[in-house]
């Protein structure tokens, strides 16, 4: 038994390394071995905390994106520091390597771009691994393989892993997966360390993207199907009040670096950094457009997500746990995205804000594939296999065809279909 476990772990580790190396190669190939292209615009806004803190004190930084605002003589970024915290170990390795080699140890030379690419790939794969730890209890390996391929390659999860490594979405994807894994662990084995790690992860999840706060609903309502389940959950937290207090302390601790930054740069402990940007459409949210519009509509650029959503309704109809919870979270997220002043989140391949929510959809996708695999009709299996191949092919081709921006007045259906026709 011990040998089998050992072999399984080594096999998993070898697979992780193989995928890590393959995705690294694909990312460098995508950017023609110019990794510094991932340090730009929003991605640089997340990253600049690292060179700003350890090298420049946020003054006179050789930033790649022009126009960063200042408070006094210090660079002020509207983005919170969660992504930078997660990138920090990779930044440290890149800085040590640069200091020992011919590269400039300035935070913006070749090794630092590589560090960002490697960090995104690492967290994406680690997120898949955490989800696998949950899903393998319910599904056979072939079902899981198809699930990972279809949602991993048939959506913009792939693009934001290899092409937009510095954006926040892959980091959020990992954190959502971690919340799913840790919530299950806390509910079933409520030890002190699990509570504290969950509090830490939830705090970091919000620090990466403040709208990720709705992930807290997963913690509160996980496996809750009726009123009695909810009352039992409240009683569960009451019985573990001390552990819950420690989790809240860990949650607060994640925000200390951000408060220090705001105080240091802006002179305030809390600063609303987005200025006039806000949820301008909250009375008339663009929810349909977010899902279907030519400008980054989710289904148009990641059509495999439709299969996962069918899986959500299948879970609801078959009374499986968390079907309603997943649908509610997806709906709230869609309302938030549709309410934002720039509802299409321009300069994106597909609607990028859903990438983190794919962590919630791997389970429903697996239930759908499992049901089809058990169908008596061979034609349904063959049809689904063909459809899956088509969706993966379409999504990958679109990922490599994407040349931003695919939005604005010059982006129209004629240009869209002209691109699609090049690979069909």
Report on the structure:
This protein has 424 residues and is mainly α. The chain has a domain at 145-151 and 279-424. 65% of the residues lie in helices and 1% in strands. It has 20 helices and 2 strands. A two-stranded antiparallel sheet has the order 1-2. Strand 1 (70-71) and strand 2 form a beta hairpin. Helix 9 packs parallel to helix 12. The longest helix is centred in the N-terminal third of the chain and has 29 residues, at 2-30. It is globular, with a radius of gyration of 22 Å. The chain starts with a helix and ends with a helix.
Which descriptors would you attach to this protein?
424 residues, mainly alpha, two-stranded antiparallel sheet, 2 strands
Task: Please give the structural blueprint.
Elements: H1 2-30, H2 42-47, H3 49-56, E1 70-71, E2 74-75, H4 82-100, H5 110-135, H6 141-153, H7 157-162, H8 169-188, H9 192-208, H10 216-221, H11 227-239, H12 241-253, H13 256-266, H14 287-292, H15 298-301, H16 304-317, H17 323-339, H18 358-373, H19 378-401, H20 413-421
Antiparallel strand pairs: 1-2
Helix pairs in contact: 1-5, 4-5, 5-8, 5-18, 6-18, 6-19, 8-9, 9-12, 16-17, 16-18
Briefly, what is this?
This protein is mostly helical and 424 residues long.
């Amino acid at each position: 038994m011990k040998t089998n476990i050992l072999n399984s772990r080594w096999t998993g580790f070898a697979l992780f390394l193989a995928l890590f190396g393959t995705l690294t190669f694909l990312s460098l190939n995508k950017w023609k071995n110019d990794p510094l292209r991932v340090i730009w615009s929003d991605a640089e806004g997340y990253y600049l905390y690292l060179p700003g803190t350890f090298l420049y004190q946020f003054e006179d930084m050789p930033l790649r994106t022009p126009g960063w605002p200042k408070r006094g003589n210090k660079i002020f970024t509207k983005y919170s520091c969660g992504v930078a915290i997660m990138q920090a170990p990779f930044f440290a390795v890149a800085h040590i390597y640069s200091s020992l080699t011919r590269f400039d140890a300035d935070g913006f030379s070749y090794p630092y771009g590589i560090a960002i690419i490697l960090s995104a790939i690492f967290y994406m794969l680690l997120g898949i691994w955490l989800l696998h730890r949950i899903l393998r209890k319910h599904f056979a390996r072939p079902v899981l393989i198809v699930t990972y391929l279809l949602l991993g390659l048939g959506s913009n999860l792939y693009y934001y892993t290899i092409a937009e490594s510095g954006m926040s979405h892959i980091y959020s994807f990992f954190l959502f997966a971690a919340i799913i894994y840790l919530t299950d662990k806390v509910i079933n084995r409520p030890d002190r360390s699990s509570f504290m790690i969950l509090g830490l992860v939830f705090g970091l999840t919000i620090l990466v993207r403040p709208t990720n706060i709705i992930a807290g609903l997963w913690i509160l309502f996980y496996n809750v199907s009726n009123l009695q389940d909810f009352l039992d959950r409240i009683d569960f937290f009451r019985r573990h009040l001390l552990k819950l207090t420690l989790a809240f302390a860990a949650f607060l601790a994640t925000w200390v670096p951000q408060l220090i930054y705001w105080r240091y740069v802006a002179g305030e402990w809390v600063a609303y950094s987005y200025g006039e940007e806000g949820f301008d459409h909250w009375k008339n949210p663009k929810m349909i457009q977010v899902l279907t519009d030519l400008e980054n509509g989710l289904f148009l650029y990641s059509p495999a997500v439709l299969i996962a959503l069918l899986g959500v309704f299948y879970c609801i109809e078959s009374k499986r746990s968390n079907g309603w919870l997943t649908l509610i979270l997806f709906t709230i997220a869609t309302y938030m995205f549709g309410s934002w002043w720039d509802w299409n989140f321009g300069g994106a391949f597909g609607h990028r804000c859903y990438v983190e929510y794919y962590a919630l959809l791997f389970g429903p996708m697996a239930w759908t594939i499992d049901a089809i695999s058990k169908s008596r009709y061979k034609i349904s299996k063959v049809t689904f296999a063909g459809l899956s191949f088509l969706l993966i092919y379409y999504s990958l081709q679109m990922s490599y065809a994407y040349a931003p921006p695919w939005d604005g007045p010059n982006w129209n259906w004629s240009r869209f279909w002209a691109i699609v026709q090049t690979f069909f």
